[in-house]
Every structure is written in structure tokens, then in C-alpha cells.
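Hi R.,

Here's the chain you asked about this morning:
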Amino acid sequence: MDLYRIIGAEMSPYSVKVRSYFRYKGIPHQWVLRNAASQPEYEKYARMPIIPLLVTPDGTGIQDSTPIIDAVEKLHPEPSIHSGDPVANFISALIEEFGDEWGNKWMFHYRWARDVDQRSSSGRIARMRSPNASEEAHAALAEQVRVRMVERVWFVGSNELTASQIETGFRDMLAMLESHLAIRPYLFGGRPAFGDFGMWGQFYELWTDPTAGALIEGSAPHVLAWIHRMLWPRAEGAFETWSTLAPTLMPILTNQIGGQFMPWTLANEKALAEKQEEFSVKLGDKVWIQKPQKYHARSLGMLRARYADVADKAALDSVLAAAGCLAGLRA
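And the predicted structure, written out as C-alpha cells:
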């Protein structure tokens, strides 16, 4: 039987996101570690230096976790990851984007901000890249990885000014997600939705690191159970309608997506259009500053296209307006 091949890494939130999706769908696949052994295949199919890379049975290479899932979902529509409730379905897509783009700031910051996390992560990456290295060679490679990655935290906006905002935002999100998951196994009810995969990839990686992992294990048992559940997700019930999801999901939309993510993404878009080297934006009562992220303007365009495709926007627009998200999607 011809199989899909997912070339990725355990420490890549986008790689494990795609793997979780394939497991849920029951699609035969091989999980291929991105290292020297898989490099020839990777170079053959990859157009961008990112993971995961999906190689399809007919020999097509697809990159970027969201387009991968979109493409495979068309070929394998059941069990669907899209709710039949139009409002809940778009909110799921919005959360998928939020997880990919804003959740990654939490993950990357916690992974590389403190010495204990740096050493844990760089050691694991070094062992993945060179599993048979001597202890001396392993230590040298781990240090090389640590120095390189710590220098890259600026890419997600982690710096002296924003560090406390990132950590406060993560703790707020953890508490809200704990409340939401206290009465359901997945974000949108009894089975995983599009939004689960995007959010979960970041939370899974956060859980594997010392500092964030301790926060999750020490204060959020329902989030922890969801993290474990999403490793091998399955349909345990039906999707809920927006009316039953709203009491605990609306605070996440308002506080995190409307209050943090949408102002940031619009400022990032403006900075790219104006070719700024750096931009700042007011998020609540704090100032956020970072270099623009080029890729995010593209993913924002994809999210706007999803919004444009919603046939009847009346109920959805009411929710998005209340959460502070509507103007950015109409831009």
C-alpha cells in the first residue's frame, strides 16, 4: 500500500499537528524524522526550508501544516474536522490560525527564554539530529543549537519589553482553556475540530518543556488531559453548537484573539506594507514591539478568504464584532 510520508520532528508544533490529524483520520502514513538520513527525500520535494513536508502517494510534496490539512481533508472528508454550525466552524478556523501564529509566541518564548529550557530543548534537538554522537560531540552540537536558537527569539517578538506580556498571556489562556475543557473533551465538543489541531501543536510542545510543562501540570488538569487525548484523537461525540460553546469560548475570543492577536496582526500587516524594520502596537495597556513577520501576512490572507466564503455572515458577524475581531477580517 502506498503511504503518505510526513517528514517532520517531534519538537516541531506544526509537524506533530499534522501527525495528530493523520492519526485521527486513520490515514495510513509514515512518520519520518527530518535528519541527515531523510535529507535527500526532503530536498527532492521541499520548496521552502520548513517542516513538516508531506509527500503524497502520487509523489507530490506539500508544505505548511494548514495547507496540508486543507488538501488532505478534501480527499478524506470523514470524519470531518469541520462543524456543521457556521459560527462554530469559522471560530474553529480562527482559533487554528491563532494557535499557529500567536500560540507559537508562547511556545518559542518559553522554550528559549530560560537556561533550564534552553538546555533541555537544545539537548533534545542535538540528539535528534545526531543520535549516535559521542557525549563530547553531543554537548558541542547542543551548545551550537542553543546559541543559534536563543538569538532567534526576536522572530516571534520575544524581548525584554514583551517577555512579561507573553507569559501573562499564556497563563491567562491556560486558565480560560482549563475552564472550557472542564466539560468537554475537545475545543468544539465531542470530537476534534480544525481549531484543536492548530492550538494543540503549540500546547503539546509547551508541555514537553520544563517551565511551561510545570505550569500546565500544576494548574490545568483538563488541559493536560486534552494534550494527551490529542496525541491519538478520536470521535467521542458530536460537535456542539455555538450557543453551548460560547460561555467559555467567548472569553478566549475577546481576551486573546480580539484583544491581542487581531491588533498585532493588523499592525504586522501595516508594517510589512510600509517596509518597516520594526513596529510597535498597543495591546491593552502594554506596548508590543517586534520585527515584522512576513509569512503571517499570507496566512492572514488565507483566513480572510475563509471568512469571505461564509455564505450567511449575520450571526457570525455579531460574534466577531463582540469579540473585537470583525474589522480585521473585513479589511
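Residues 47 and 63 are 8 Å apart (CA to CA).

Let me know if you need anything else.
M.
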